[in-house]
Amino acid sequence: MHRAGMISIWFFIGTLLLAYGVLILGAGIYDLWNPAAHPVVLARLHAGIWWGALLIGLGVIYSLRFKPGKGK
After folding, report:
1. What's the burial of 62, exposed, middle or buried (CB within 10 Å: 0-12/13-18/19+)?
2. Residues 6+ apart with CB under 8 A from 61
3. Both ends of the chain: CA-CA distance in Å?
C-alpha cells in the first residue's frame, strides 16, 4: 500500500495543521493585545489562543510521527 519514495498524506495533514495553528494563534494573540470595540460574548475565553495551540500540538505530533524517511 505504501511504495518506496512516496510521502504519507498524514505528513501533509500535519504540516497544514501546524500552519493553520500558527495563523490562528497569531490572530488570537493579536486580539488579546488589541481587543475589539464590541467583543463577542465569550471573548474572555480567548478561543483563538486555545484552538491555535491545539492545532500546533496536533500538527507537530502528526509531522513528527509521519515524517518522510522515518522508515529507512
Report:
1. buried
2. 14
3. 16
Q: What is the pLDDT of residue 65?
A: 95
Nearest CA among 69, 72, 64, 71 for reference residue 10: 64
- pLDDT tens digits, residue range 20-58? 999 999 999 999 999 999 999 999 999 999 999 999 999
**Does residue 47 contact residue 28 with C-beta atoms inside 8 Å?**
yes
Cα–Cα distance for residue pair 72/58, rounded to 1 Å: 24
34 φ/ψ sector (left φ>0, alpha ψ -120 to 50, else beta): beta
Q: How far apart are CA 5 and CA 10, in angstroms?
A: 15
Grid cell, residue 23, equals 495563523
Q: Any idea which residue has 500552519 for its cell? A: 19
